[in-house]
Hints:
Elements: E1 6-12, E2 18-23, E3 29-34, E4 38-43, E5 51-54, E6 60-65, E7 72-76, E8 80-84, E9 92-96, E10 102-107, E11 113-118, E12 122-127, E13 132-138, E14 144-149, E15 155-160, E16 165-169, E17 174-179, E18 186-191, E19 197-202, E20 207-211, E21 216-222, E22 228-233, E23 239-244, E24 248-253, E25 258-264, E26 270-275, E27 281-286, E28 290-295, H1 300-310, E29 349-350, E30 357-358, E31 365-367, E32 372-375, H2 413-449
Antiparallel strand pairs: 1-28, 2-3, 3-4, 4-5, 6-7, 7-8, 8-9, 10-11, 11-12, 12-13, 14-15, 15-16, 16-17, 18-19, 19-20, 20-21, 21-32, 22-23, 23-24, 24-25, 26-27, 27-28, 29-30, 31-32
Amino acid sequence: AMADPVLERQFKGHKGAVTSVSFSPNVRQIATGSADSTVMVWHVKPQMRAFRFVGHTGPVYAVAFSPSGNMLASGSRDQSVRLWIPSVEGESTVFKAHVGSVRSVSFTHDGRFLVTGSDDKSVKLWDVGRRRFVQSLCGHLNWVRAAQPSPDGRMVVSGADDKTVRLWDVQSRSCIQTFFEHSSGVNSVQFHPDGTCIASGGADGTINIWDVRMKKLLQHYEVHRDAVNAVAFHPLGGFLLSASNDNMLKVLDLREGRLFFTLHGHAAAANAAAFSPSGSHFVSGGADQQVLLWRTNFDADLEDAHQVHADPAAAARPIHAPPAAPAQQAGPHAPTAADTRTAAPQSQHRSADTGIDVYPRRDVANMADNNFSIHSVGPAIYATAGRHQEEAPLDSDAPAVETHPLEIHDIPKPMARTFERIVSQLEVLTQTVSLMERRLQLLEDRVTREPEA
């Protein structure tokens, strides 16, 4: 039976806002970074004491466990990256990674490389075993807030204060796609577990889901009242978790294109959120200095979906979302389902070409009672045993998704022309600066490789 998420544990020990969270692969440890300049490793077993790692000289903005769990990376405002051994000794290797604050650290799935994003506007790749710089990805025009490699390691997605989400090809070091739909800085990006799409959360309070292959917007959500600081896919791909400055965590059902749960646990901004590798738990960190461990519970529905698609006879039957669970009144930190609504059953047909179940596009669902809206632009994403559903034909009256350039309304023509000239000159200046940055990066690459030669 479907159940609400449950708050299992609260960890207290940081003396500043918690900025980032990461599960160890065996789910026995949780790493957190904080504005108090420390990294802490918490043990899920209550009887074990937490480790506090001291070494950074500025706020820690990012932490990430390696896939093996025997290493922990952290990035800080002190412009360095540290690789820690997550034991009581807390030994670490430190290297000057960037010429700006390091906002993001993320390991490739094989653990060989580390991807970092920084206020110096670059994304960098590092060889973990050799502790050496490999390459830079340059093109963002403002601080890079987030960067993550694809599951196969061939691509990197990044989000920045220049309002763009960029997709990079690692081998060619080139930007292969830029998404412009956010109206403010992009704080968080993450690849879907099957690598076919990416999620982004922005300072504009919106969440977008992009199709990597079609290179277009699939879904757009407006469920938060303030900036979205983190987005995280459930490992099975059917749900997305988000954390926001509105103090709330939200769970989105991507198959139905709707808000599923709203969790009230933090007394201040929720800065970070992540699922455990199995999806059985998730963790959140906030400006209230708290780390909260939650039991997922609702992901049993995904297991049901997998079973249905494993059974050919059952595949012809549409899968409907369960009714929304009633709000809990257990206490101030109890999760609530106050902002959920049961979606109308979806019709379903089967593609004669591929034999894949195809779900038609959902109409816009308005959360009028909460002043929230969910715009499902394009087909809902349906997680089925590691494959992405084929795109269904869009309705003819479906709202188009467009990226608009600078718009000038009700401004005298001479002033408008002046603005346009200023904008064009700024673009030229931006291109010149970008070119200079790339030349400097080439020089940096050459200098870095000379010792190896």
